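Still learning. Show one?

>
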Amino acid sequence: MAIRMIVSPWKFGLRAAMGIIKFLAATMAAISLAGCAATVGSLDATDLPHPTDYSVHGIDVSKYQGKIDWDRVKSSGVRFAWIKATEGGDHVDSRFFENWENAKAAGVKRGAYHFVYWCRPWQEEIAFFERVAPVEPDALPPVLDVEATPTSKSCKRTLYRDEVVAQMRQMLAEMERHFGKKPVIYTTVDFYAGILQNHALEDYPIWVRSTKYFPSIKYGNRRWHFWQYQSDGHIDGIEGKVDRNAFFGTAEQWQDFTRGRNLLELARN
């Protein structure tokens, strides 16, 4: 935490200036002793909700979680899972079908997500995702995973807000038509700041990544529906680390959502 104040000591006189300096020194010392435990908006802050304040939690997985024991995952309290299905227009996650079937068998609500590759026509990407991800009445809505990829070796495209938002709207509309459910947008802080802020695509639910701060610190007043709050979590049934997520509402709202209630309407109530 930093306090920044610019003061001319001669504006108030030497004695007053010395008093200000002493006050600032004492304030900074107190902050130092506290170890910045009260950092505004951090997950340790006491004035904002903590992930444990939410009753419905889930995970998101891909091949990197390896072989998953979904029965143990279910017993650990996980209520839902987002499962990577595809990336770009030709890559299927090698464990998608295994995870898709086994999660359902264990009683974990699950949905499929597509990771966008920005150097391919959107029609090819969504058509590929639709060929891979099953259309099932009891599945969660599909997710469009949109992230900036500046370190990509094969896609150096610069993303422009108006162009990307228009492209995303077309992808989302096609996903909704095919799956019969309003898709969810997954986004990171940098992509949101560059593309989605200022109310872009607010007619779609959003799943935000914010592992250090409560979402409102980085996403402002954008209403979120799922919150990825940890990237190095540990869950019984999964060896190694896994992303952890929270649903925005109560257990009753979760039940309404899984029965087909519109997520945007639930969030407004």
User: Anything to note?
Assistant: Confidence is low (pLDDT under 50) at residues 1-40. Strands lie at 57-61, 80-87, 91-92, 109-115, 143-146, 184-187, 206-209, 226-233, 242-247. The first helix runs from residue 9 to 12.
